[in-house]
Amino acid sequence: MRRSTLLVALTTTTALALSGCGRDDGGAGDAGAPQTGEAVSTDDLSGELEVWAMGAEGEALPELVAGFEEQYPEVSVNVTPVPWDSAHDKFVNSITAGTTPDVAMIGTTWMGEFAGMDALDPTPGSIDTSAFFEGAQGTTEVEGTSYGVPWYVETRMVYYRTDIASEAGYDEVPTDQEGFQEMAAAMQEQEGVDWGISLQPGQTGSWQTVVPFAWSRGAEIATEDAYTLDTPETVAAVDYFGSFFDEGIADANPPEGQTEATFTDGSVPMFVSGPWMMSLVEDFAAEGGEEDFGSMYDVAPIPTADGGESSSFIGGSNLGVFADTENRDAAWALVDWLTQPETQVEWYDMTSALPSVQSAWDDEALTEDEKLAKFGEQLTTAQAPPSFPTWEQVAAAFDAEMEKVAKQDLSGEEAVQTAQQQAESIGTGQ
User: Fold this and answer.
1) GO CC annotation: what is one (predicted)?
2) SS3 62
3) Per-domain residue ranges for the chain?
């Protein structure tokens, strides 16, 4: 299955009863369930809805929501595409000015900040949050209350060249971190290979590679009310990350934008990334005359250590309803419709955005691709960072220390102690 790109993670009843994916009308009363908002009604929906969505999703969404307008002909949906690079500030300014849309696509790491500004409407109890991947649902919850639903998801896995791995004596990727590093070193010894693996050497977003190594050792990077970046498990994971650079297995100064080229030519036969890279590497190879590149690589889960369970970062985007909406029932009806399994599969066909609803993954469109199915399996254990409003600031501080680990030989102990001190200085924002 070849796709040009993979984009960066309702029925009418009196109460918004949901069907087809394990939803029911009793979510708010379930033991351990997050606190939820008031019920909504889909009787006689009418009026206009303003929806904001970022990037390519904003461009494609009008075609999809035409189906919602057919189901609710008295409701008109206006979608405004918003560039990603200005989206955060646009949202903050609109919250301050009281000019928010009714419904919006919201970055998962923004939920805590916006909820802390009292800008989001709590998710109705009629939505069964167990329908979603657990890690994705967790990105909507702030201090025990859900403020939206996961819309689409993504996670990270190890990409590796199966042909080069075979030459190095490996038929499959070791599941333990020590064995995984040994495999990377062995692949580096093969003809034409310059580096055993590509790992992001710090800078924005590098935590999305390093923290999964920690999670896969059993680390917890936060409690309910504090950051805990300096645990022994995280120290060990950072040292492990740094050892790839110390031992010359990974390049501490890789050229930007060369992953497709170096992977397809075999000079760097492993890297860690999301599902969108499948189409990118296959299309790049096809442009160079290699039409069957899909058979030359595979994906594998994040390796574990010390008895941990493989766990990766879960990303994607959520859908939220803003508290100032004047058409709350219709707004939540739209959100509900967008997260029905059949709608999610249709959206995947249109954009390749992976469904957040677990039952949607039973559809043939997703099960027919073996690599994609492996991403679906990794999603079942993937985790999200804490929903504290300050997470992005703390992540930036962590990324800066990871760059020192990769390029200046900083130890894991020094790196996480500094990151923890900065996290404590920044605070959780709660």
Assistant:
1) ATP-binding cassette (ABC) transporter complex, substrate-binding subunit-containing
2) helix
3) 27-155+314-379, 157-300
Q: Which fold has domain 157-300?
A: D-Maltodextrin-Binding Protein; domain 2 (3.40.190)
Torsion over CA: 350, 356, 361, 362 (sign)? negative
Beta strands in 364-427 (DSSP E): none
Half-sphere exposure of 6 (CA within 13 A, CB side): 24
What kind and span of H or E run contains 56?
Answer: helix 55-71
CATH number attached to the domain at 27-155+314-379: 3.40.190.10
Q: Counting beta carbons within 10 angstroms of the beta carbon of residue 126, is it exposed (0 to 12), middle (13 to 18) or buried (19 or more)?
A: buried
The pair of three-digit structure tokens given for residue 74, joined into one six-digit string: 């008295």
* Fold matches, 27-155+314-379 and 157-300: yes
Along the chain (430 residues), what's the average pLDDT of each consecutive run of 10 residues?
Answer: 34 29 34 65 92 94 97 97 94 97 94 93 89 93 92 96 98 97 98 97 92 97 95 98 98 93 97 93 94 96 96 94 96 96 94 92 91 94 91 95 97 98 93
Distance set, CA 267 to CA 163, 170, 405 (Å): 13, 17, 24
Q: Where does residue 261 rank: exposed (0-12), middle (13-18), buried (19+ CB within 10 A)?
A: middle
Residue keyed to tokens 């499948």 = 278
